[in-house]
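Hey L., structure's done. Input below.
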Amino acid sequence: MSLPELSLSLQFADPRHKALLPRHKVARWIRSALELPGEITVRIVDAEEGQQLNREFRSKDYATNVLTFDYSHEPVVTADLVICAEVVEREAKEAGLDLAAHYAHMLMHGTLHAQGYDHEDDDEAACMEARESELMQTLGFADPYAAR
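Output:
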């Protein structure tokens, strides 16, 4: 099975985990979750920028792990994924997760959102979580939802 084409822009406003996120790995993780060709920008930010964007676009005054700005679902998935390095690091530490694995999960989670997946109700959440579990395991990571 060949993976969809991906045009990736990778930006590090917060460079603390840059070594963990080489372009080829980020592209692999995103492409695994893409169902159609994609044009994705990934921006790794600090808590201040993450909080500002979450406040401005979601009216929530805190930094969150991943924000997805989706612009088109087809014929090309076009989206910006904003990932807050501090939040991802804190979540990984608190849950005893490998940091790279948690980044992979957040990138796949954001990519699924970019394609219309959501978790607003129980049925949507179950569908999205099952897809994330399948993707993570296919790439050799642990199921992120198994420990709950």
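The longest strand covers residues 38-45. The two ends are 31 Å apart (CA to CA).

-- N.
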